[in-house]
Design goal:
6 copies of one chain form a homohexamer.
Chain A lengths: L8 E2 L15 E6 L14 H8 L6 E2 L4 E2 H4 L2 E6 L6 H17 L3 E6 L4 H7 L6 E6 L19 H7 L3 E5 L6 H10 L2 E3 L1 H7 L1 H11 L5 E7 L21 H11 L4 E7 L10 H22 L1
Parallel strand pairs in A: 2-5, 2-6, 6-11, 7-8, 7-10, 8-9, 10-11
Antiparallel strand pairs in A: 1-5, 3-4
Helix pairs in contact in A: 1-10, 3-4, 4-5, 7-8, 8-9, 9-10
The structure holds manganese (II) ion (MN) (12 copies).
One manganese (II) ion binds next to loops of chain F.
Chain lengths: ~300, ~300, ~300, ~300, ~300, ~300
């Protein structure tokens, strides 16, 4: 892999469940950027921690009747990052992602802070692109403490790139973000609404809203899930999604248009029983299985 | 603040989310009493831990469409406590509470062990007062190991003061407590009953039962919540309430009669991922927002 | 107790909640075998940890209106185990169990890894015996890494003994295990199915399926429960049972035919807030209360 | 053991390394009193934690060439304590201690907070009694926060009983305590002095100072040791003794006059690697071996 | 305090041991910058953690016979920092420091990462300034991963400002750093050399080397100390200083020329028993006491 | 690498500090065997944990003036192990070791429990082989709980192979082991003796005792070191070696005859601050640097 865009790719990391299957349609990329998190740092350790926990899960998806153990993953390693320059890092991420997406791969990015999604989208063909983000927060601030590339601003930046955004799990917001969302027509679902609507109706509304999209990207900020299930995150926020609902929604909305997804904001130092990393592995597995099945049909 | 009743108030503590808004209707008081807990001590650290976690939450309440960031809180500090004399401490608590309630403030007390609620109620005008307590336990023992001011006896003492008590989340009880509750007409709801009745019917029954009350007090023993969501408590008890239901019930029953509430029994040493303190902060925020809205109507 | 089968029983352990009631119908046996766990070891500490947590729970079962504090338990201590010879250990377990079951006792075994259940069943009269296992895994592999007495093979071994098996909570499986289960008519319920069917219908199907059984054995691999509620297990697996459902199902299916049950795979080192051990204590208490009540009718 | 003084003795606890040897000259008593600790609570769990860690150490003392595994210990259980009444508890402790000392036993008390030593001394024949205390603190305050039976006052109380006191490891003191010590002729050694004098000269001075004593009591507040070696204590204080020096000093000063000793202030919740409890076990073992050998000569 | 240089000072933090004594010669400033740490993040929490641990230590210095409880500290709060712009932050730090040093105060800065020392020195009158740094590392790299303001480069930057540097505790270095140190005449002492020379001779050499200095600054990177005593640091490095030696050296070299000092690189998330924060508090106390005494003579 | 002896070598593990230098004289092999540990399990995670911590240390050895960053290591991966069959595993270890030693490599084995050393020695040419073991225990039992391949028996087995053994750090022993050692002429040094003799004299005696040896093997059971420095071990034992002395002794005794060494008994679950793994990395680095330098002369 000698393309110039891979200059900052370090292939020597631990592999996701030991997988190194070059022919797999799924490429795994670790992006341990952990600079702007305001509360609990440590997402830099998430790629390593999630890869390790993946060693102990079963790779057969009952939900999809797909054996991901056979399909495998191509874990290409971690992106090497600048210690403090976020914009430089977004540019490195963008290069690596564009390389793999042009190679026809579905990219699975393991953060790192949510900000990385801006870099991923920069590296993605954005015409007709829609993004579904699971998150407790809207991340729609224009700036945070004077800075426009904070994790609290990432969906604002992506929205400015012209990507259509739908947010699921919303519950910790500022008034300004809600107003921006309404003004820009950004659909969001609070956990309370999802409990009222049910998983199927929620999924139906997302499907309707993404009907025109040419490609889909899914971003899973693990704080979208309730802290009981995902305690090891940078910014835990009570009253969240339960993992079953998240997996069910992804199962219903992900189809062959999905060009990539990410799992961000896991902070292993606060994941004292390791259950957040295991859950992240399981979400990767089930999302990949759903996409694989959708593409096979 | 030179009233004699504030002799034991130490104003120099960390502030709840940095709030120090003197004009706020909400006064926050730390009461780190941690003497009689029989199992896992450490509730003495809860005021500090909950105040810190509050720094990282959003202060806008979607449930109530109220921005508590604007209304703010007046964090007046911690009560200085005697190392072992519970009755002396209840008297100190009573003085501070009576001062602030007479000043027209809604007091938010952060425990410490549940015993503090006896001191709070002592400092409260009790005519027509009703108390709704969320708790895994009834706390209706006459004495515990020969002692009448243990946290396992607090609702018995308050009941003896003539306050009407309703308990929510009950599941770890002795036979004697159930008999006492039945004999005294103390209504209680087990999580199983709440699942059967639903949140709305549960709330309706509590509302009916408190119709005659002139003022309301809410006590949240965090062990009322299931340990998955609130692991950092002195006495975890499985098969409990989920936070959404607790927040929904408070949202339905709290009205302008609420003169104060407390959050007790958080034990930060056992809250290894910090999620119990964050949840306590969120309960404070949502309860205050509900009360604020009710008073504004 | 001088029967030769008790040669390897060490009576000097800590007692379950301090109970030592010889006349109780319930015998508690610690079996700290912790050899084949592939992921997170430490189930050797579970008997001690669960016994300690039991000191702090209330022994009155609201579900059954039975006061287990009065009935009590006869905690006979731990089985002394060989450091690495699993088959030798299964034989020791078998001896101890057969002694107490022949004495007419209901045995409550606290593991240790799931493999111990093979030893228990070896020591049990197997004619007409049926086993209901709560587990994330099917444990139906023929061998694991070349070994036939691994915890991942335990239900396969027991199935080979001619015992009818029903599994509840299944979600992490290999394709081979599913095929074996189907071929042998082993009924299993995924959490998704249980959510669809509801607890009552699930229980009804288990009851139907066990109608012909002469005796019942219940095995609770704590990883059957969702990691939010039981983080301290050897192999956490997301998207699991919630404890309320598990307790409700046991409450519906356990009757006077139950001759014993076990709690296995708790790994206290990963139970950072101690909630898994408390839950295990509560499951022991409620299951015993249900069985006691069934036998009293 | 039906003496009235044993009313509050609960024999059903876990045993120290499983020992229950009635003929041993050494009696072990757990005293889990944990009421007045101002900083990090949890010494209530120390008797259980130290007893468990003792299961894994070797019982042969190289220092003394004595096999304590042969001599054994008679672990008689824990004293049952009042939840908040310190003085009542000191009286219970006093009764139990006086019973065993009158029976000619050497009592090894495992705290709990340092305050228990006042109860132990109350139960001891005090004529000609001298006490050597290893502690970072002098514990010579007259009162602490208005209370005279706080752990910070224990040596003051014992000094008032007329017992001669020598303190070793002193480094965290108030000016008043130093003045009191000087005025009353209470000898104390800071770690700096011990480094200058050397272990042998320090021991020589203690021996000279205790020459007239008829009986000796040794109290080991684990915070006397440096927090690197004993992190799990209620009040860690840097720049302390290393365990080798403490063991060497005890080895030199303990002789046949020793009528008992205690280990206090271990707080297992803060002993994250368990090394403080193991060290406490080792100190118990070595001190007992030294005393045993001295009595055998 | 309305000087423009205090724009980014947030006065509302928790106070060091509750101290707020405006007349004290010692100003405490929290600088929670935590951006470039390559290994274990979390130094952002150190100011809060160290301030809390200070509540529980005694303020009398036996080493200096000075009661710091009487002299007190003026804790002015934390500097508000940009999420990722290190240079902007160094400029904010520089402003605050210059204000307090011009006011004649001795500044005690609590980091945050070591990089903050560059900001502090920028805000300091540098003519004749010498800096003594306790550190496992030389921090003399020209750049780290392409960045010149990394914590691994801080002494290189300060050296470029023309400040004379002496390093103590050196043991984890690159060859380039050693060569740079030799070339620039930067004196450094490895722990091995200090063991050979002894504390007094080491101090004598430092005193000789700083004889011409007009003012002194002391920087304590807590990783200079051995990880046994200071486990909670960003980059633990074995074979280090013991705290007694560090305190003794500071005691010998600090005199009335000291214009400030800092404690950096504490990472509370890894300080599982809290002993690193307590040690940091004790170093602050003893260093201040030494400086106070030197200025009083 | 297609030699049959490498059948059980899994090359896909994380690399030691990312090193994969095939030409290095040093081969690193992970041997995560964790079956017979009687106390605190988890050494199975040590190879992964030590490799990760190595990423953050400097590779220049001041002690030896050797830059191991240039020389590098060839990390060949982990040995795949049977879940419970110790003897089978020793045979797999023996095969892999014999392959690399025949290839002229110096093998650095990262355990796993101490038992692995028996497998390593089985794979080593034993004529004239001497082994220096750093350990709190003698590991000279004939059997432990009926089993001859327990970690408490490993030096007994190796002694029976005819290898000369010297033990350093001995302090937790049974009387039988001491007698066996004396009878077989196995030299051992307690930490007390080493403090008396000094490091140089201790080393001199070891050198004298190994003068006739044709090749040397060094085994570092991390519990040889004091638990303050190495808390994360299976069996912590107070009053141990400090790491400086251990590194100094290795530095003095290791010469060009060294054909391999191992680091065993690290238990990362108990290494809450990670300092044990960092220390293990540093010991590997310094030992390799010493051997490299000795071979270069
Ligand atoms: Mn986000
Ligand atoms: Mn978020
Ligand atoms: Mn309560
Ligand atoms: Mn309660
Ligand atoms: Mn199982
Ligand atoms: Mn399982
Ligand atoms: Mn003390
Ligand atoms: Mn003390
Ligand atoms: Mn530094
Ligand atoms: Mn450093
Ligand atoms: Mn060993
Ligand atoms: Mn050992």
């Amino acid at each position: 892999m000698s393309d110039g865009r891979l200059l900052y790719l370090n292939e020597n990391s631990r592999k996701f469940a030991g997988f190194n299957k070059e022919k797999s349609p799924f490429v795994i990329i670790g992006i341990p950027m952990d600079i702007t998190s305001s509360y609990r740092p440590g997402s830099r350790f998430a790629p390593s921690s999630i890869r390790e926990s993946a060693q102990y899960i079963e790779f057969y998806s009952i939900r999809n009747d797909v054996d991901m153990g056979e399909i495998g993953f191509n874990d290409v390693g971690d992106i090497i990052l600048h210690p403090s320059n976020v914009e430089e890092n977004l540019s490195r991420i963008s290069s690596v992602i564009s390389y793999f997406q042009e190679s026809g791969k579905i990219t699975i990015s393991i953060g790192g802070e949510h900000t990385i999604t801006a870099g991923i989208i920069k590296g993605t063909k954005r015409e007709g692109l829609c993004l579904v983000s699971f998150d407790a927060h809207l991340d729609l601030r224009d700036e945070y403490m004077g800075y426009r590339y904070d994790h609290a601003c990432v969906m604002r930046r992506i929205s400015e790139y012209g990507v259509k955004i739908i947010e699921v799990g919303t519950r910790a917001v500022s008034k300004e973000e809600i107003e921006y969302a309404k003004q820009k027509g950004i659909l969001f679902f609070t956990p309370q609404q999802i409990r009222l609507l049910g998983v199927k109706e929620t999924a139906r509304r997302i499907i309707t809203s993404t009907q025109e999209c040419k490609s889909l990207y899914i971003s899973v900020d693990m704080d979208g899930i309730d802290p009981a299930y995902a305690p090891g995150v940078a910014t835990p926020e009570p009253d969240g999604l339960d993992p079953t609902n998240l997996l069910d929604i992804i199962n219903l909305i992900a189809d062959k248009r999905v060009i990539g997804f990410d799992i961000v904001e896991v902070s292993p130092s606060y994941d004292t029983s390791g259950i957040t990393s295991v859950l992240a592995s399981r979400i990767i597995l089930e999302t990949a299985a759903t996409v694989y099945k959708a593409r096979s049909l």
